[in-house]
Amino acid sequence: MFDIDPDSLSEKKRIEIATATSFLQIYNLRNGTNYEPVEIQDTPDVRCQDRSSQEILELEITLLEDRPDDVAYVLGRVEVKDELSIARVIDFKRDVIPRLIERLEDKLLSAYGERTALLIRQVGPIWTVSDWQREAPAVASQVLAGREKHYGMGVWILCSNTSTIPISNDLFPLFDPDIGLIEWKPTIQPIEKLVGKVTWEGNITSDFKQFAERDDVDVVRVDSPHDCEYAILIAFVEEEPEDFREEAIDFYRTQMVFFCPCGKGNARMLGNWFAVKT
Asked: Do 35 and 165 lie in a common domain?
């Protein structure tokens, strides 16, 4: 780590160093690397080096607001106005995604090459990885496709993990050089209702078995979007409304993009479903 007095840095540079440090804590843990900031630059913003391999990773950092003046408000530059208390509720797809596209288009005007990553720091603490999983893959296909090499070390969103107390940071890849561009196929996947016709494989919990065997439960199967041999099974109580089912099916199908056991992600249990071989 470079030795520098934080008070000697501009506010912008202090934010960039803090953002880079938060990113590297997660990135290093996930990738088995030992990157640390070694230099503050004008562009890209932060130069990092792996203490073990000596490889260089440069970070171009930008902030993502939910709405105008979010950054200024967080930094205490603007006072809370009366109308803020009655402002409309922020909508992820309507408010945040257009700003993400705007930031991406601006940053993609530059091409920093194979050792630079674009790091987008989410300012507000509301949105989590699950929100990004639902909407961001379509944005990646729309905006990043064909321009991935502008940032050869990936395009990442530093967002919130609200499952911890206090809230911690999490990392979502729009483009991960190890697996490619995050893509989402908006086509409807085949869905088959299965009741009492499931061949369980693996360590399926007894709670799920009992839940699936109840007379008032529908078990829905959703095939993996990777065209592999895995599918997921979702258990619904019969009185659950159709719109809730559709939302849940869409959510878990999106999860399979990232966590499918076929090798496209890390197999894991999520709620009342488990991946099974077809």
From this structure: yes
Domain boundary among 181, 204, 222: 181
**CA dist 28 → 57, 83, 180 (Å):** 12, 42, 19
Tokens 């993400």, residue located: 100
pLDDT at 121: 93
Q: What is the DSSP letter of 128?
A: B
Q: Say whether pTM exceeds 0.90.
A: no
Is position 186 within any domain? Answer: no
pLDDT digits (tens, 9 = 90+) for 86-114: 344 467 888 888 889 999 999 999 999 89
Q: Distance between CA atoms of 195 and 218, rounded to whole angstroms?
A: 6
The length of the chain, given as a count of residues: 278
Task: Show the domain range for 204.
Answer: 191-277
Residue 70 maps to a domain: yes
* Range with lowest mean pLDDT among 47-56, 75-84, 126-135, 154-163: 75-84
3-state SS, residue 182: coil
End-to-end CA distance of the chain: 49
Positive or negative torsion for Cα 100, 271, 277, 245: negative
103 and 169 together in one domain: yes
* Residue 150 sits in the same domain as residue 54: yes
* Residue whose structure tokens are 């893959």: 137
* Per-residue pLDDT at 211 exceeds 50: yes
Q: What is the DSSP letter of 89?
A: P
Q: pLDDT class for 81, splitting at 50, 70, 90?
A: very low
β 155-161/116-122 pair status: parallel
- Residue 76 in this model has a pLDDT that exceeds 80: no
Q: Is residue 1 part of a domain?
A: no
